[in-house]
Amino acid sequence: MEWFVLTVLCVIGLIALGSQAAKEEQNKVAQMSPEELSKYRKEEAEQHKMTTYGTINPQMICPHCQTKGSVRTKPVTKKTGISGGKATAALLTAGVSVLATGLSRKEGMTQAHCESCNCTWTF
Question: Is residue 42 part of a domain?
């Protein structure tokens, strides 16, 4: 019971800290001049693009619109097909291993996103 109370108190504390940080950020933004606010919003948008689509690859050409220098890339993992080894293990363990691992295999790929035509693809 003590662990439960301690866990609840920790969660409440984390929520309070997050709320305080959000209020401080709002106050900071409210005190900005229009020029500072515009710069701040551009930086936020760039950070969002970077986390969502990755960094700009200046040498890559978009296969859809043929634009060079506007393609962002980042590494991703994608589920592809059924792994033969996992299927064999599933047969040998009467399906129990499927619960732990699933049947599909994960493959490392690259995700690309063109800022000009807004297309996203993987290769």
Answer: no
